[in-house]
Amino acid sequence: MPLVRDKVHYHATGDSVIRVENTLFKIHKFPLVQSSPVFESMFSLPVATNEAEGLFDDRPIILVGDTADDFRAVAKYMYASPIHIQTYSITETALPEIVSVAKFAHKYDMDFWQEWALRILARLLFDLSLLPVEHFPALYSLYHRLADYPTRNRIMKHWCEVVRRDRLSIVSILLAADAADDRDALAVIYCTEIIRRENGGVGFDLQALGQVLPRIHIKRLLSGYASLSAWKEKKAVNQQDLTADPQALMVRDWRFSLQKVFLGCPPHSIDANQMPRMDALFTTLAAFPMNTEYLTFTKIGKVMRLISLLDLHKVPHDSEFHFRDRAKELVNRWYNVLRADDLMRYFSELVNDSHDKH
């Protein structure tokens, strides 16, 4: 492409010609040197006069890996009057420019301008629901580049919610997560798309996705959908069989016993004589191979959680048997059982396994 002079920032009085992509900027080097040790070093390198770069259009200083839009945004605010760089006066319409400034400033160690841009972004990102979705790719990429993972993850979480709610294409969000190797986000995105297909195909066009997404993502989606179907069939069979499963019925009886002794009495009326029997039951539960189906069928986890929340003075001999602490331990253990069987666990493993093979 032929080189073109920037329409705004090719200043006749400038002392340095800088090329970014196919655009030539002629600016005054002092603001860059003053705010960036990288540019200070760049402009102070000793060279022969006839070899100096940046004096003429045919020998510009070339910035690699930057965009003309990014440099144009930096130049805009460096040349702006003080009143126009007051952070409170900059609105959401300028957000792409502020992202450009933050990205460029981070690369070239321009601390003042990076801090300035991030203060503005912190204000604009306070309520993500007010931002148009088209800003999310650049924002997500920026905060990943800055290694600000809490903000990056907050943006991704909201972005996923918008994609799901508004039935948007997953292409841009998936490519952004893939570029950042954000495997947790990839798992959520795959799950969103697969559930779309399961719910009637609204927003799901595998052929169209295949035209724009790397093949590995299509393979994961197809594998995930097949596994979802098998997972649901297994769940349905297990739930049907539980009413005739002796162990499931036994767990349900245990739940009734716990509920009757600890939760079925008026306050301060738990029968102290039942505590040795409950101690034995807690020991049995601790050794029992609990699974998701039994927990879901019997709701024993809910009862155990309520026991863990009882006041100390309401539980006879708790200093001896430690029922509340043991209940809390069982609740945590059973939560991990449920989590291990969660469908999202499968998608996370799917991402990691296929990533390693890719």
Automatic annotation (TrEMBL):
CDD domains: BTB_POZ_ZBTB_KLHL-like. InterPro entries: BTB/POZ_dom (IPR000210), SKP1/BTB/POZ_sf (IPR011333), TFIIS/LEDGF_dom_sf (IPR035441), TFIIS_N (IPR017923). Residues 14-87 form the BTB domain. It comes from the Eukaryota. It holds the Pfam family BTB. Gene3D superfamilies: Conserved domain common to transcription factors TFIIS, elongin A, CRSP70 (1.20.930.10), Potassium Channel Kv1.1, Chain A (3.30.710.10). Coiled coil: none annotated. This is BTB domain-containing protein. It comes from Mycena sanguinolenta.
